[in-house]
Amino acid sequence: MSEDEHDRRIDYIEFTSTDLEATKHFYSEVFGWEFTDYGPDYTSFQDGRLAGGFTKGKAGGGSPLVVLFASNLDTVQAAVEKWGVKTFNPHSFPGGRRFHFKDPGGNELAVWAEK
After folding, report:
1. How far apart are CA 83 and CA 103, in angstroms?
2. CATH architecture classification, 3-113
3. Domain residue ranges of the chain, discontinuous segments joined by +
4. Where are the beta strands (DSSP E) in the chain?
5. Are 56 and 17 in contact (CB under 8 A)?
6. I want to staple 90 with a disulfide (CB 3.0 to 4.6 A). Which of 10, 27, 56, 99 is the partner?
């Protein structure tokens, strides 16, 4: 899929886990997912079609975090804010940058870009 075809589509989903090692073992054995660790509190998975991650957190940490991809993060952030929606938690990470927002219905999502 080209970057233009990928733009503004669901790209990644994040969950919380109280025990990352047990979580990795479970999903690896039951579903065949492959994992890459990024420090002691985060692991990324590939299920063969979709990528996601688990961050260390408390039980019942809430809904999974859906992450959208953007070819141009600044353009998408401006479009989100134009709707009066506040963005938060902007940060860089290995592989890119991202920000979070809560949609008008109260759902938290994130948007990331490679640059």
Report:
1. 10
2. Roll (3.10)
3. 3-113
4. 10-17, 34-37, 42-46, 51-56, 65-69, 87-93, 96-102, 108-113
5. yes
6. 99
